[in-house]
Write a structure and sequence with these properties.
By secondary structure, this protein is mostly helical. The protein has seven helices and no strands. It has helices spanning about 10, 15-30, 55-75, 80-90, 95-105, 110-120, 125-140. α3 (about 55-75) crosses α4 (about 80-90) and α4 packs across α6 (about 110-120).
């Protein structure tokens, strides 16, 4: 966590405080974009995740690896911070600001700020543009 992210989201979450602390410790230990077992939880959307529709767990894992690698290449190219890279990956999986708020234990305002700054750096305006960019990146390196 960066100094600006520490504590801000946790103070407003009350009962989720311990869970957020555990997730933050886990992120700091791994410090990568590895999917976590709780990624399958719903963020309120009726749209299935991109990996859920794939034929086998192996295919889903390969797609998720390709997605992570594409996000890391984009992040490197556009000079995104580590936190912005995490948010980019979650957005590429189709998640929204409220899900990112809960997943990363930040305030909704912080999640939206990360999204805004990513969009600004990538010169995009909508999530579908981000999804197209990531899909193109995957196809270019297939």
């Amino acid at each position: 966590l960066s100094e600006s992210d520490e504590g801000v989201g946790r103070l407003s979450h009350g009962e989720n405080q311990a869970e957020c602390g555990e997730q933050a410790a886990s992120r700091n230990m791994t410090n990568d974009l590895s999917p976590r077992h709780d990624d399958a939880s719903s963020d309120g959307l009726d749209v299935p995740s991109a990996t859920a529709s794939l034929a086998s767990p192996d295919a889903a894992a390969r797609y998720d690896d390709a997605l992570k690698e594409a996000c890391e290449r984009i992040a490197s190219r556009y000079l995104l911070s580590q936190r912005q890279t995490e948010v980019l990956y979650l957005l590429a999986r189709g998640h929204t600001a409220p899900y990112i708020q809960d997943k990363l234990c930040v305030t909704l305002s912080t999640a939206k700020s990360h999204i805004y700054n990513i969009y600004k750096k990538l010169d995009i305006h909508k999530q579908h543009e981000l999804l197209s960019m990531v899909e193109s990146e995957i196809e270019d390196h297939a």
